[in-house]
Task: structure prediction
Amino acid sequence: MLKLSKLADYSVVILASLARDPSKQVTAAQVSEDTQLPVPTVAKLLKKLAKSSHVKAIRGAAGGYKLAHTPEEISISSIIEAVDGPVQIVSCASPNPEPCSRQINCVLHGRWDAINLAIRQTLKGVTLKDLMHTPARIEMSEPQIDNTATASPMGRACAMSEECIPQSGCNSMGGSCKG
Result:
């Protein structure tokens, strides 16, 4: 399952709370009360969000936090990255992948990159303002499946009447169609 971490989710909630009145300065306790999240969690995340320049931290007896940018300028991707690091669906699809012991024999090496990039670009294209103004619940329908054709991993659609021939040594990943 592809799922945001709780801390990334809570960070979005915290920033949405601050975005209701972007010029207002609030304490971690006030944000906690507004969001119903525990004060220690809110304080920890506000520090991370201040370090990543999402919020301004004001020190002192009358200190607190407020948004450093308008909700239109804050991407959901930047919030997630501030808390969890780069968005990646598999470890080898990160901008700086860690060496993988299976890389040499992996039939999917490099194949996740396009999917990972699409997810990252989508998250970069959604702002905090966009998310705050999205209807609370969107009816999700099942994806429509076209049973007359299947897409080959190499991008060419093969009609069901055609026979898909995998390339040698690739375990059905990446082949050509014979019709």
